[in-house]
Write a structure and sequence with these properties.
By secondary structure, the chain is an alpha/beta fold. It has 15 helices and 13 strands.
Length: about 375
């Protein structure tokens, strides 16, 4: 069996980190899996895959193709249908280009997609976008959703549940057990720093500004640490400067040592406007840290503790939860232990096993989902 995983680029998002963790294991299981990026901009995640002898393709953006949203990428994708039994797509626009390339390739190659979100702008758009989504998704032989909430919302959007299966994202829990020393954050000017860590790409969905604004209501020793990159990063840095809390923020960019960073944190914060799953939440729990997140479908079920949830964009409510944990060490310790236990629901081994079951089903022409 030969599988090609297709994704836009190799940033720090949950979908990307999932590929980095599980593709090498698929290969160890005899499921020969390669990776194709619409834009293979250099990153340490790409280097990590190559060190594990994973073949990584990049659809080099020529002078005529300057964006991953250019439909000409469909033509570049078509040739890959001759090489693989299954092509597995993640995120928009990859899922569109793969489906359309399948139509024009006249290939018998099976195609799979993973739906990573419970919400997106296309679903809130015009009726035309809804019908276009229905056409694109209908071309897939299997649709993996990462939570029951993601599946339910997608069923409503597509008006069908055919070919759908729920597979929770998995985290390499063993990587957290192997951490020898926590990450060392850059020095800050305040004594006894208390680190509020958010690992997320800088996009509107992740809403880093709410965590930045919450610093106005918190003691000065509380430092917001942001791990990731993306189009909104400069805007968030400017916002921190404008409201006068920049000295209490750390923007670390892309980082490879996520387990070490989680161990060095005091609290893990996810302020997403919407979230399919919340991989960073599981990683925080795997490090035995309390995780505070927005009360949105997907993320709320992962955190599984209403006391740690706040309304989207409510920086004051967020700051109250932070102070509640800060002022109650025994409570903090109890929640830390529960977090560690909760993380065990989301093992990488379970995810790998379920993905390979889907691959075998569609190749055997069994649609028993």
């Amino acid at each position: 069996m030969r599988v090609l995983r297709v994704i836009n680029t190799m940033g720090i998002g949950g979908a990307e980190r999932s590929i980095v963790n599980n593709v090498p294991i698929h290969n160890e299981h005899g499921v020969k899996t390669d990776v194709l990026l619409l834009n293979g901009k250099s990153s340490f995640f790409i280097d990590k895959l190559k060190k594990r002898n994973i073949k990584v393709y990049s659809l080099t953006l020529s002078d005529n193709i300057k964006t991953i949203y250019n439909p000409l990428l469909i033509l570049k994708l078509i040739k890959f249908f001759k090489k693989y039994d299954i092509i597995h797509a993640h995120l928009f626009p990859s899922i569109y280009w793969v489906a359309i390339a399948k139509v024009f390739s006249f290939s018998k190659t099976k195609i799979v997609l993973t739906e990573h979100s419970t919400e997106n702008r296309r679903r809130r758009g015009s009726s035309l976008l809804k019908y276009l989504d229905r056409f694109i998704y209908s071309k897939y032989d299997a649709i993996i959703t990462i939570t029951p909430e993601a599946k339910n919302n997608l069923e409503k959007h597509l008006n069908t549940s055919k070919r759908m299966v729920i597979i929770y994202n998995g985290v390499d829990l063993n990587a957290f057990k192997k951490v020898q020393e926590p990450f060392v954050f850059p020095k800050v000017r305040f004594d006894n720093p208390y680190f509020l860590v958010q690992v997320a790409s800088f996009r509107v969905q992740k809403d880093q500004k709410t965590l930045i604004k919450s610093l106005l209501n918190l003691p000065k020793n509380m430092i917001a640490v942001f791990v990731g990159d993306g189009p909104n990063k400069d805007e968030c840095i400017g916002y921190a400067k404008r409201i006068g809390v920049y000295e209490r923020t750390l923007f670390l960019g892309l980082q490879e040592k996520i387990p070490e960073i989680m161990y060095a944190s005091d609290l893990v914060i996810m302020s997403s406007v919407y979230e399919g799953f919340g991989r960073a939440a599981v990683e925080g729990m795997a490090a035995g840290k309390p995780v505070i997140g927005t009360n949105v479908n997907g993320l709320a079920q992962v955190i599984n503790d209403k006391r740690l949830l706040f309304n989207v964009g409510d920086d004051k409510q967020l700051s109250k939860i932070i102070m509640w944990l800060y002022d109650n060490p025994e409570l903090y310790q109890n929640i830390s232990l529960k977090s560690l236990e909760n993380s065990k629901r989301f093992s990488l081994e379970n995810m790998i096993e379920e993905y390979e079951k889907v691959y075998n089903r569609i190749l055997s022409k069994s649609d028993n989902y």
